[in-house]
Design goal:
Blueprint lengths: L6 H20 L2 H17 L10 H22 L7 H6 L4 H16 L3 H11 L5 H8 L3 H25 L3 H7 L20
Helix pairs in contact: 1-2, 1-3, 2-3, 6-7, 6-8, 7-8
């Protein structure tokens, strides 16, 4: 026959006293019951270290008190967040999405015709005014406005087409129709300048 440990009979007898003490400490019936259960688990796990000549209830009260203070320290660092509102404020968008979007934009700009790309880059990236961009390209301010507008419209169509088809814009720019040019039209040259 298997010999039963004395704790089988002794621990249940201590439940009412432990529960009263746990209620005084926690002021919450459910947390008090959890605390008593945790105390019993720790006492059972450490039953070999219990000295039979000592007072069992005092030993259990010590375990209960130490467990309570350990949990209290843990709960102080926790925030109750029932609906996840606090967790949403702590989240951060993945950084690689911004890098991918920027790389996609740079690639799309690189595929624009030079006469649209140069004014966009000068004004958007380098902060040139329309007058400075016109001087750098050797054309009038009205021409710069027109080229920037056409370049933005091409990029807008490219990315709108991307949202509709969910394909890489790099593939689509080559598929997009170029502005109509008659064969008799004189080529427009834009010279690089320092601004």
């Amino acid at each position: 026959m298997i010999e039963r440990h004395p704790f089988h009979e002794l621990l249940p007898q201590q439940r009412p006293a432990l529960r009263r003490r746990a209620l005084k400490l926690t002021a919450n019936e459910h947390r008090a019951e959890d605390l008593v259960q945790t105390t019993f688990l720790k006492a059972w796990a450490n039953r070999a270290s219990f000295d039979p000549d000592s007072h069992l209830l005092a030993w259990l009260f010590t375990i209960l008190r130490n467990t309570f203070f350990s949990e209290l320290r843990k709960y102080r660092r926790e925030i109750e967040d029932v609906n996840g509102a606090m967790a949403n404020t702590l989240s951060e968008e993945p950084r690689q999405d911004h890098v991918l979007a920027l790389n996609e934009l740079i690639s799309a700009i690189a595929l624009l015709p030079v006469i649209q790309r140069q004014p966009l880059v000068l004004m958007g990236a380098y902060g040139f005014s329309q007058v400075e961009a016109a001087d750098a390209c050797g054309c009038t301010v009205g021409t710069i406005k027109s080229r920037v507008s056409r370049g933005r419209a091409t990029l807008d169509r490219t990315f709108r087409h991307d949202e509709e088809n969910s394909r890489s814009p790099l593939l689509r720019i080559g598929e997009m129709p170029r502005p109509d040019r008659s064969p008799d039209a004189a080529p427009v040259h834009c010279r690089a300048g320092s601004g």
